[in-house]
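Page 47, continued from p. 46.
Same chain as before, 117 aa.
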Amino acid sequence: PMVNKLSYKQWYQRRVRGFQEGPVLHLICSLFAGLCVATANNPVDVIKSRVQSEKRKLGTTAQYRNIPQVLFLIIRTEGVQGLYKGWFPNWARVGPHTCMTFLLFEQLRRLSGIKPI
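Result:
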């Protein structure tokens, strides 16, 4: 996702204080990118899950008609924090994936001789 790449690149370009180019810096930047991805992606995940888990009997009308309606219904009934239900499990799924992706990417970049940003 674009959020993933942007947050990683921003932290990487700032070179988190005290860390030189290497796996520790890449790990810190990728952890932050994972946090950004989980935070940006969670509302979409919550809306998708609500629509998919809706149980309808044949001949009845749907509780959710469209995505904006689901979004406004969640905000009205549960507040904005309702969009972040399940954030930690989402981060536990996305975080390790993001870390492994960027650590592997940076090692492949280094092995291929491409200079860091």
